[in-house]
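Feature request, filed as a ticket because there's no other form

It would be nice if the structure record came with a short human-readable summary line next to the tokens. Right now we just get the raw output. Example of a typical job, pasted below so the devs can see what we mean:
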Amino acid sequence: MVTVANILGYSLVGVAGKTDLDVVTRLDLDPQNQNQLSQSLRSNRWRTEIIVVNCRNKSVARKAGQDRRVDLVTYPVSDKWKHNYLDRQQAGLMRDSGAGYLIDVSKLLATDAYFLRKNIEYLKRNLGIALKRDIPVVASSFATEPLMLRDPFGLAALLSLLDVDEDHALEMVSKNPNNMVTQNRAKLKDSYIQDGVWVIEDE
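Raw output as currently delivered:
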């Protein structure tokens, strides 16, 4: 899949898992409660470049939204979609902590017309709230096999289903994730202490 992504024109690829290639290491957490989330963050934050939290309940979502160790928050699309979504309170927590909203673009590839309509409705609502609160938005293919991959413009084109124009869609596909990776790689250096505080060695 990494080889296909390279052919499609990507220069930076996030991978949820181990690889021998020079790619962004991404860890997708799927905690059942706040304690599980805290334990996972404590164990993995300083050895993983991007951490995504899949929020299946409001308790986990609130914790993920206010914890600065979380990079991206996403929500599963399920039969409980009416009760589990990015509300205004959650968006406020994410804005203050710096967490971004992650769009699962694979949900826009649904072949069933009913589920595609529901997915679009669900994702548009979350995206609208994120943009109103100036939360950084990242779009991911969530690809599990090569056939699910799209080139950057193809991925951005799918976001038109959510009424996102091309310029903003390309930001979600390239600029926003690149900025996040650059910041996190800097934080993983030994010279980083906390936001705004670095160790500077005299030459």
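Something like this underneath would help us a lot:
The domain at 2-187 is CATH 3.20.20.140 (TIM Barrel).
The chain has one domain: 2-187.
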